[in-house]
Amino acid sequence: MRYYLQDLKWQEVSEYLSRKDLILFPAGSVEQHGQHLPMITDSSWAIDVAESVAAREEVLISPPLPFGWSAHHMAYPGTITLKPETLTQVIMDVCNSLIFHGFKKILILNGHRVANLAPIEIAAAKLRNTTQAYVAVVDLALIVTEEIRQIFESDVGGFGHADEIETSFMLYKHPELVDMTKAGKNISPTISRFSNSFSIPDNALSGNRFFSTPTIEEWRKSTEPYGFKGDASLGTSEKGEKIFKAIVANVIEFIQEINAIEIQSVNKTAPF
């Protein structure tokens, strides 16, 4: 079975919709990931998970969205960012198109972690309330919070960007794109009793938190000369395999739960 929507003929899509109404929608980013990881890292999370889940559950995959909200990463060459409102609108337009044709359940797989969450969650909330379709966001870090806690070895502040977790994932799935000779450690000292919730998934953090998105200048200053935060040197292929398999298993478990949800009708509005 071919799983990507764009690889099918329209008759094949129609036949699929006569049997199933769920589709996966991978969303990532094109942004710098330090000197040791490629810019496709976040998109790889979403695409690789989608392909593995699709093969096991025999569900379709929407064309992946490679661009995300990556404004602060414009501090380094190569990053491409959408405005948050643009990302929200693109998600809505794609999903409305899918819903118009009969997809009633859309699972947005977010590989860009917390940075993409706000714009995508806004889109999902609007879609659910305007169409009545089941649109859910699965952040590929948050869905394995418990598993990462068992695997993660970094100190507080080690869960950052191009860190132990992302490095491990890429070592497992795309080792040819990783340069571990340039993977190091960059953990900022604690300057407050409040933890910055821009690193919400950091399982080593405890206590009160706040949210503050760094500016381009702040990100450059805090990550020079590497471009990353955390301890990338602790990344291993073995950890990446455990994390990847846990994500796939948890996404499949979630799909099996929502398969039981019956949606009688949806409001179909083609984006114009």
Number of strands: 8
Q: Main sheet, how many strands, which sense, barrel?
A: 4 strands, parallel
Instruction: For the record, give the distance between the C-alpha atoms at the N and C termini, rounded to a whole number.
Output: 32 Å
* CATH class category: Alpha Beta
Low-confidence stretches: none
Q: Helicity, in percent?
A: 40-55%
The topology string of helices and strands comes to HEHEHEHEHHEEEHEH
Total of helices = 8
Structural topology:
Blueprint: H1 10-17, E1 22-27, H2 41-57, E2 60-61, H3 84-101, E3 105-110, H4 113-131, E4 134-139, H5 145-151, H6 164-173, E5 185-186, E6 195-196, E7 209-210, H7 216-223, E8 230-231, H8 237-258
Parallel strand pairs: 1-2, 1-3, 3-4, 6-7
Antiparallel strand pairs: 5-8
Helix pairs in contact: 2-6, 2-8, 3-4, 6-8
Task: Please characterize this protein's 3D structure.
The chain is of the alpha/beta class and 272 residues long. The protein has a single domain (5-258), classed as Rossmann fold (3-Layer(aba) Sandwich), CATH 3.40.50. The protein has eight helices and eight strands. The chain has helices at residues 10-17, 41-57, 84-101, 113-131, 145-151, 164-173, 216-223, 237-258, and strands spanning 22-27, 60-61, 105-110, 134-139, 185-186, 195-196, 209-210, 230-231. The strands form three sheets. A four-stranded parallel beta sheet has the order 2-1-3-4, with helices on both faces. α2 packs across α8 and α6 (164-173) crosses α8. The chain is globular, with a radius of gyration of 19 Å.
